[in-house]
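Session log. Operator J.P. requested a structure for one protein chain; no other inputs attached. Running the standard single-chain path with token output.
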Amino acid sequence: MNAVATGVRPGTGTPAGVLAARALALLEERGETLAVAESLTGGLVAAELTAVPGASKSFRGSVTAYATGLKQDVLGVDGALLAARGAVDPEVAGQMAAGVRERLASGWGIATTGVAGPEPQDGRPVGTVFVAVAGPGGTRKVAPLRLNGDRAEIRRESVRSVLELLVAALAGGAPAGLTGDLAGGLTGELPGNERAQDTEQNGGT
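Structure written below.
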């Protein structure tokens, strides 16, 4: 099973800036690097990371694959998977993370994809988000989020959640409220945002 972020007030988790700094510190300690693939967050994850002084020591770069086709063309997401399930899918998120890791020659890759409105997309309701981490040795983690709120809140919480997932992977544990095998999936509740539900259509996944 995977984690679901729901029913938690905005701002109750560790702030994204703190998580970004922690992730970069852990990466530097390990001598490893990070690349980011973003869809609904539109570059906000990369912005959070590059706001940290010295980020260039570990942060390789990012790809904002806003359109569905770019997920295949730039990140190498399986076209048959996209055709069958659409862009808002846990396996798509995992392949985005793995793809950006490979394309940017990085030790770790993280990704965000989701429905940010105003209509459901690919059979997924408004507020459905998937965040993923891919790392050395085939490590891959995907956490689904079900978020409520306005556009700014869902994007902000998606950023915070993917950074939290990364920190947990680097530290060898699970984010607060999560249990299970990090390489094969997570179960429990991911601290998040009870009002971060927003939607984006094609381009917004």
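Operator note: DSSP finds six helices and seven strands in the chain.
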